[in-house]
Design goal:
It is built from 16 helices and 17 strands.
Length: 450
């Protein structure tokens, strides 16, 4: 287990000087223990203490960053077995496989798919992040040229360089420049030379064992050699073993603080089936339990989209609803005669309502009231979306200066507060909108300002 706030406090100067940005050493210690502040922010602790605290408060699964510039993915860093205990922090990046035996047309097709498959859902962009480049022809020139091509044409793709040959991987790494690719992989036979390469480049190194035990033994040796950024492939022989290995790794790292397994995993579902639908089903299990990264044989939009939605849902903090900012949202270029609608700031509500309004093409003002992420009826029941709070928001948000009419459309589910709201907003006429967002287009087309 990591250090508690009190244990960390014992190692701080306890002068409450505030230089770390916190009012007291205790407040700072609690944040460090929760992983929300960096011990290095306190200028008054020795290097020795910093190292001790950093080590003890680090997540049991090492956090590893891959990529460069604006295109960094973080893997690992998990601290719990179940998301209801806290949350899962870093979604497993999803990637596509390319290898040196593929034709230029096939490579071009895969690049096109990587660029094409991206969707927006509740304000979040869903897209794949990784390209795994495999040398399967022992052709250094082809491998380097593929690496350069991908870096040039798809700079947003984070790379995994895959080869059994150290020299070939070294050339690929050289072609990556500043871009921190994952080197795949150190085996029982070659881990010493792969360790030298990883040290020289500063790139994270993947371990490939023939079993979870062998992967742990290789990781242990690499740890002794001073390597810290490792990613594990336990070399499972079947789907069941693949699943079990992920669970064993997570439990061993979190419950036992067993260092050789305290690293994110890399998984290849296509190694267990030729059926792409089954491959994506395996990937969906791995999203939930507990892959650090998933490399797929190919992308298919109808399979990739649900996988990415699942990933987003599992890695959403269950204790914090998705919200949008309180404010006035102009949709379809509204003017002073455009209708004014009000709703809550639960992200799903916002995106459904705004989507329907945009689809209607009727210029409108959408007022989003902060309800702490609660949906309309829940917020009303909790006293966060009643007549008094809506009225206060309408008065202060500035909508009165943007329109010359005084008509406010409220969600149909709040019909019961119409009278009360008219008392709170005597200058406004309160209009009851449809109960469901799907009714908005027809409703808005009937709307008249005058
Ligand atoms: S900077 Fe260090 S000594 Fe000062 S309040 Fe923060 S933790 Fe305490």
């Amino acid at each position: 287990m990591g250090l508690t706030g009190i244990q960390i406090l014992q190692m701080l100067p306890k002068t409450n000087c505030k230089e770390c940005g916190f009012p007291t050493c205790l407040a700072f210690a609690m944040k460090v223990a929760a992983g929300q502040a960096d011990i290095a922010t306190c200028p008054h602790v020795s290097e020795e203490v910093k190292e001790k605290i950093s080590e003890a408060s680090a997540p049991p699964i090492r956090t590893i960053k891959l990529g460069s510039g604006d295109h960094i993915v973080t893997i690992g860093g998990e601290t719990v077995l179940f998301r209801h205990e806290k949350r899962f922090d870093n979604p497993p990046p999803v990637g596509i496989l390319l290898n040196t035996s593929m034709s230029p047309e096939e490579i071009a097709e895969r690049i096109a798919k990587f660029k094409k498959y991206r969707w927006e859902r509740v304000g979040v962009e869903l897209r794949p992040e990784v390209m795994a480049l495999e040398d399967n022809t022992h052709d250094q020139e082809a491998f380097v040229s593929l690496t350069k091509k991908i870096r040039q044409e798809v700079p947003e793709a984070v790379l995994v360089l895959m080869s059994k040959e150290k020299d070939l991987l070294a050339k690929g790494a050289e072609a990556c420049g500043e871009h921190k690719a994952l080197l795949y992989a150190a085996t029982m036979e070659n881990y010493k030379e792969m360790a030298e390469l990883a040290k020289g480049t500063g790139f994270p190194l993947a371990v490939r064992g023939n079993s979870i035990g062998e992967a742990a033994r290789i990781a242990e040796e690499l740890l002794k050699m001073g390597l810290k950024d490792l990613v594990l492939d336990t070399g499972p022989q079947g789907v069941r073993e693949l699943y079990e290995d992920q669970v064993i790794m997570r439990r061993a790292a979190i419950k036992k603080r067993y260092k050789p397994l305290g690293f994110p995993s890399i998984t290849f579902p296509y190694r267990f089936t030729d059926n792409i639908v089954l491959e994506y089903m395996i990937a969906s299990v791995l999203v939930a339990k507990y892959a650090g990264m998933i490399v797929l044989s190919d992308f298919r939009g109808d399979l990739l989209f649900p996988l990415l939605v699942e990933r987003m849902n599992i890695f959403t903090d269950p204790q914090r609803p998705l919200v949008v900012e309180e404010g006035i949202y102009p949709l379809n270029g509204p003017d002073e005669n455009a209708p004014v609608l009000v709703t809550c700031n639960f992200a799903l509500t916002y995106f459904i309502v705004s989507g329907e309004i945009e689809g209607s093409r009727v210029p409108s003002w959408l007022l989003i009231k902060d309800t702490e992420g609660l949906s309309v009826l829940t917020a009303w029941a909790a006293g966060k979306f009643g007549a008094d709070t809506i009225a206060e928001f309408v008065k202060k948000c500035g909508i009165a200066e943007k329109v010359k009419h005084r008509k406010l459309i409220i969600p149909g589910y709040l019909a019961g507060i119409k009278g009360e709201l008219e008392e709170e907003l005597p200058d406004w006429e309160i209009i009851i909108g449809p109960r469901e967002a799907s009714g908005l287009p027809a409703f808005l087309k009937e709307w008249k300002a005058a």
